[in-house]
Write a structure and sequence with these properties.
The structure is a homodimer. Chain A is of the alpha/beta class. The first copy, chain A, contains 15 helices and nine strands. Strand 5 of chain A pairs antiparallel with strand 5 of chain B.
């Protein structure tokens, strides 16, 4: 498959707009923002890589951002790994941010385990199991506070790259997308090679039933959709975009979870969508068990950019596993890689990035 | 008294360096950071304007930064006032930041009342009464986290203006300065026209005795000085300066409390001092009951700049009271005013600022 690339960034969807977005951010100085959250939904057995060691996985968002800010995790030993031992994509994010000297701000939408590092507090709490139909408290207030933060950050950064870390997030995304009438069945991604679509849909259906919501009933009530079947990352992320994208470009960094965030953003303020792109990894756009484009295209005509990361020749099996469908994306890895490429005007290639990731892997995992 | 001024900024100390600092920041885009904290010390009767309504005053830092971020206070009605009804200097800060379109980030060093607005959490707790000799927990960790935040912010902002809000802060400043061997007796400022120097010294002596510290014994142990007789704003503020001033100028915005912060900064890393200036108000440098220059000059050759604010012709008695020695400074008012003047290359004068303050006063106080 031949695809149009600029430097090592694939124009994966809405090519013209993607190219224009890349031109706007080329050589510019971004701020990388990582939004973290926890949801009890992650503990449902079989749902995510999280399911096997649920208590340990509660530490993942905090550990991920400690890695970004401190260079190593503090609340756990080593780094977050899947049950098979495949390491967190925060290794990619960290390498990209360090190579391109990009600053980082962590924002908590609501976590159970707090990072042992500075983070922006919005007053949110960790989310509930969406099967109860009561997933997120104070969604409106969190969105408002995040919007204020986004407005202020947009006055100081040339553009924002916003990523996220929340285990169980593709299921809550499926929940919110379904409540808002976007067909995401069989389309959300997974950090495991075999994607448990059936179980995810069952969980979402249970949540919608508990909250007495029909598919699409909350198309124009995003806060209720998040409150019932979403997670606390979503309103924080959406608020940041709503606050910042009026003034500067915002690269939404992640996989299919961003569909839910984008739907919330659109429901509040369509006018910011021109300033927004999705940044992800090649592994996501090549994922045959999911359909990021199919989700995004239902919401808005915004471009999808993908970092052309390729770990097939890595020295480490734990990294080569990314080529076999493990992990794929997270902690804004793809968007951070794109920002590193764009800031350096292509001088930082994905091959250079892999070297950085391998150094981190050697240091922190091997 | 004739004084050298550039625009409406008085070169109050170290004129040559002050002029050079102003030139470096002229036309540049700053980030305003407000560090908040609480200390039980503020509740000691007669010590500060805080003493009369101690429970209410615990809300002051949170309310001050809500005013900055939201345009009005949320955790209290109206705005913080002294017992005489004189309003918080956050009115000045807010007007300056709005007029010059300067973004704001709030950082908590340790508070009892959390702002109902986004703030950077460093994991610190509110401080104890320094008479116990146990004032601040985890000072080292807070400094470290603040330093990381400062490093990251310095990659995105052209320079930082850092202010603070902590009732009782001049007494804790006297404590740390004394522990570190800087003669500040009778030199720290007060938000009241009559400065209770004798009581402040008595409180500090009690704290030093409880912690078994002689005057000057902790000259090279700033963390212990803060831990015993300081407050949780200090290490957060110092950490931000240490992290940011390696890369960008930092205008330390406030009054005599900054002496303690500066002493901590110097003890950790003298090399950043070339990138630092103190920004304050005319009311502080003209305060006959205190001596900011006398404190700063003992620590380092850094310039003092003062916004030439003059409220004597204000329509409101609550603002004219600033000319009679009430409040004087706080919430980075002087530094924010200087930044507004510098960013606008003098187009924003202190007369323009007063109009803005009066509009805010009318809206929020009158």
């Amino acid at each position: 498959m031949t695809r149009k690339k600029i430097y090592d960034v694939i124009l994966a969807h809405e090519e013209g707009r993607g190219e224009a977005f890349l031109k706007r951010i080329e050589g510019k100085k971004p701020l990388f923002v990582c939004v973290i959250g926890n949801t009890e939904t992650a503990k449902i057995p079989g749902l995510s890589a999280a399911g096997r060691y649920p208590e340990l996985t509660e530490f993942t968002p905090a550990a991920d951002v400690e890695l970004l800010l401190l260079g190593s995790c503090k609340c756990i030993k080593g780094v977050p790994v899947t049950p098979e031992g495949i390491p967190t994509p925060a290794l990619i994010t960290k390498s990209a941010l360090r190579l391109a000297d990009i600053p980082t701000l962590v924002v908590s939408g609501g976590v159970k385990i707090k990072p042992l590092a500075p983070y922006l507090e919005l007053g949110g709490r960790a989310g509930g199991d969406i099967r109860t139909g009561k997933a997120v408290e104070d969604a409106e207030e969190i969105l408002l506070r995040a919007k204020i933060a986004g407005e202020n950050l947009s006055k100081v950064a040339e553009y924002l790259v916003v990523g996220e870390s929340i285990p169980g997030g593709t299921t809550t995304a499926l929940g919110v997308l379904s409540a808002m009438g976007i067909d995401a069945k069989g389309k959300v991604s997974s950090s495991m090679p075999s994607n448990p679509h059936h179980l995810k849909m069952k969980v979402v259906e249970e949540g919608l039933r508990a909250a007495k919501i029909e598919f699409g009933a909350l198309a124009s009530n995003p806060l209720k959709a998040v409150s019932c079947v979403g997670d606390p990352m979503m309103t924080a992320f959406a608020g940041l975009v709503l606050g910042a994208a009026r003034r500067v470009p915002v690269l939404m960094a992640g996989g299919t979870q961003l569909g839910a965030v984008l739907a919330v953003v659109k429901a509040f303020d369509r006018s910011v969508l021109d300033n927004v792109a999705v940044g992800t990894t090649r592994w996501i756009i090549e994922d045959k068990s999911a359909d990021l484009k199919g989700i995004i295209a239902q919401i808005a005509n915004i471009p999808i950019l993908a970092a052309d990361l390729d770990f097939s020749c890595s020295r480490f099996d734990g990294l080569r596993a990314y080529e076999r469908g493990f992990v794929k994306e997270g902690v804004g890895a793809g968007g951070a890689a794109i920002a590193a490429v764009a800031k350096s005007k292509g001088a930082i290639t994905t091959a250079v990035l892999l070297e950085g990731v391998e150094r981190n892997y050697e240091l922190l995992v091997a």
